[in-house]
Specification:
Layout (H helix, E strand, L loop, with lengths): L10 E10 L6 E8 L3 E5 L9 E6 L3 E11 L2 E6 L17
Antiparallel strand pairs: 1-2, 1-4, 2-3, 3-6, 4-5, 5-6
């Protein structure tokens, strides 16, 4: 049986942040939990698994993220801390 790696602990938060697709206007997102690797958001925007975008968090600035899962208005985002831009020609960084 495959053993999944332990994921970092999630911390419940209530943050109003912004999301932005490359070259588009920002939209509101509500961050409900956060870890070192990513966060869960709620938004009126639609997302696609694998989509890359920017998450703009107060006091943290603009972070490149990739959508890992979507469930209605909720989505799980993985932080891409080694990336500084959303260059669609580059393959996503290998995630372990």
């Amino acid at each position: 049986m495959k053993k999944w790696p332990e994921r970092p602990p999630r911390h419940q938060v209530k943050l109003i942040a912004a999301g932005r697709r490359d070259g588009e206007n920002a939209f509101t997102v509500h961050v409900s939990d956060m870890s070192y690797d990513g966060c869960q958001i709620r938004s009126d925007e639609s997302f696609e698994v694998g989509e890359a975008l920017f998450l703009i968090v107060p006091r943290m600035g603009e972070i490149c993220v990739r959508v890992k899962w979507v469930d209605g208005a909720r989505a799980g985002l993985r932080f891409l801390l080694e990336q500084r831009s959303l260059d669609w020609r580059q393959p996503p960084a290998r995630e372990g």
